[in-house]
């Protein structure tokens, strides 16, 4: 039999009938506090302090080890994912720059092809005027010949030097 004198009586046992029912409208939801330490550390701490909670020493050590390994694998995977995302963003930026460069060069090729025939005509007409001007200068019609030769030379030079250019970007 238990000695009744050793068991203290509670001051407020809650059985005296002085409780009142809580107001149904003032139910307070208390948010759960997040675990401040990583879950693997929590499991390791529980396994070391109360190994029977996980089925014994061997099982608790095994569960703690698995949780720690999974935590490390997750951390490593997140780091690799972050690195790969940075690489993907860099590659996407490089691809965009190369597409812009390709478009500019394609435009330049198109402009060159469009003006190639005009330049060839300019070289042909300029050469013809230059030759005719020299011939006219020799036959006694020097003012017309010199004018034709100068016009022909300018036309040839402009046709050779002019290159269609686009913007860099």
Task: Write structural notes for this entry.
The protein is mainly alpha-helical and 169 residues long. The chain has one domain (37-161). The protein contains 3 helices and no strands. Helix 1 packs antiparallel against helix 2 (57-138). The longest helix has 82 residues, at 57-138. The mean pLDDT is 80.
In short:
This protein is mainly alpha-helical. The protein has one domain. The protein is built from three helices and no strands.
Distance between the termini: 97 Å
Q: What's the tally of helices?
A: 3
Radius of gyration: 46 Å
- Main sheet record: none
What are the secondary-structure elements, in order, as H or E?
Answer: HHH
Mean pLDDT over the residues: 80
CA-based shape: rod-shaped
Assign a percent range to the helix content: 55-70%
How many strands?
0
- By secondary-structure content and strand pairing, the structural class works out as mainly alpha
Give unreliable regions as ranges: none
What is the domain total for the residues?
1
The proportion of strand residues reads under 5%
Give the secondary structure arrangement, pairings included.
Elements lengths: L38 H11 L7 H82 L3 H20 L8
Brief descriptors of the model:
169 residues; mainly alpha; 3 helices; 67% helix; 0% strand
